[in-house]
Amino acid sequence: MATRRKHGPAHFAALIAVAALTGCTLPRVHVLHDPLQPAEHLDLGVSYERQGEFDAALREYRKAAVGPLKGRALVYQGNVHVRHGATDEAERLYRAALRAESHNVEALNNLAWLLAQEGRRLDEAERLVRRALAQDPEPRGPYEDTLRAVLEARGAR
When comparing pLDDT for 123 and 26, which is higher? Predict the structure, then answer.
């Protein structure tokens, strides 16, 4: 009668070592879906942005740009582009955010601010920031600052 050998942890460790030495690889695990929710990607992007890792932040913001967070994620992408002087891309993203959420106060404000900084389309900029202010955002200070910047840019023309 044959006896069955029980293999312990040492046996399995030896098998793994042999596999590694002979070029065999262990099975790979493929994740078929993203385990993170859009809100988690957004938070991760904010964390990366605060650390100055802008490419990683953009990657996470792109993953977050679905469903109800699409507008905010597009605004955050635009903000990263503004920081790097890519104002055309930032404007495109702010406008995309407004197409996704016409009431997005951050997109309204940031697009108005960008237009004021560039001294162009100031009538549109004023309309945008006034739409944002009409929604009574909290805190109001940044929106009022944008309106002042737009009005100053109009006066400088």
Answer: 123
